User: Fold this.
Amino acid sequence: MIDVEILRERVAATTGALADAAPGAPPELLVAGKYVDAGEISALEAAGVTLVGENRLQDLQAKRAVGTSITFDFIGHLQRRKVKDVLPSVRLVHSVDSERLAQEIAKRSEGETRVLVEVNVAEEETKGGIVPGRLDEFVEGLSELQQIVIGGLMAMPPFSDEPDRSRRYFSDLRELRDRLQQRYDGRHDFRELSMGTSQDHIVAAEEGATIVRIGRGLVEPARVGA
Assistant:
């Protein structure tokens, strides 16, 4: 069970730390939904959480049914066959990593759909995403899909217990975003940088994140009676 008061305090402390790290432009706090079940959504709402990211369609649907004041994003790998069910339920898809997925989103879109391109910023073989050297080509291809607007980039740097080791990857992602934002001004907006998790969100905020994704580090300390 989640203690709402403890969670509210942790949300306030986290948002305050993000504001200190990025004065004037703190990132949004996205709570990773895989650490809570549908029955705990009301506790998140009561604690002041307004944005939740889901990895799975069935979890998204269950939580959206009860989370009336919460906005949902999709942050996991999205299968093409589930696009038609995901799109009506989310504000933003964080994980577009293939032309075929983008084509399916365009096909299922009513009007324009904003998406984030997932970038494999460290070029890790075990991770999905577009490697930096292919990013221009990928964005050019998506630009032919009139229903798609690229709202920014998302990345997960290699895990490290030392937050500052993520800094160069966050900086690289920001530089990629800035270049693409200038090049595609008027076609895409590239406003968002979705980067930073529980272990390195403060560094991400310092490097220009607009959305940070925090789950276990925020929710688990608020659990009682487990």
